[in-house]
């Protein structure tokens, strides 16, 4: 999830919590705070290749990121080399990628309504939601537990 965290951070957000369900593919749920102080949630999926993972699709074949400077520029702290035009271009793409997620930031209630409205809750989503339960308000935590119980 390093790439997604790096993208959100590059876009000016602080990742407050990150939960991951699954193994080589699955779901991730993040609670973030934007640069302007908004807090919200992102629930999305990840995969193991560029065909099923948004970050891999966007950045997987960019050899500069991993090989030109001998370091992972997508690490959470960013390892972009100052004055490198390719690093500058990659960082701009990373910011844009993160901003797309932040534009779709969801409230706690949005997550609850999403889960309640599903006929089936995938195991990967369930893992993320169960791990994040302590962060939800008491009322929303109860609603999520009930939705998970009905589905489980």
List the main descriptive attributes of the protein structure presented here.
single chain; 152 residues; alpha+beta; three-stranded antiparallel sheet; 7 helices; 3 strands
Give an account of the 3D structure.
With 152 residues, the chain is of the alpha+beta class. The chain has one domain. Helices cover 47% and strands 16% of the residues. It has a three-stranded antiparallel β-sheet with strand order 1-2-3, sandwiched between helices. A hairpin with a 5-residue loop joins strand 2 and strand 3. The two termini are 26 Å apart. 25% of the residues are buried.
**Would you count the extended β strands for me?**
3
How many domains make up the 3D coordinates? 1
Share of helical residues: 40-55%
Instruction: State the order of secondary-structure elements, H for helix, E for strand.
Output: HEEEHHHHHH
Strand order of the largest sheet: 1-2-3
Beta-strand portion reads 15-25%
C-alpha termini separation = 26 Å
Structure classification: alpha+beta
Global outline = elongated
Please tell me how large the radius of gyration is: 17 Å
Residue-averaged pLDDT, rounded? 88
The number of helical elements comes to 7
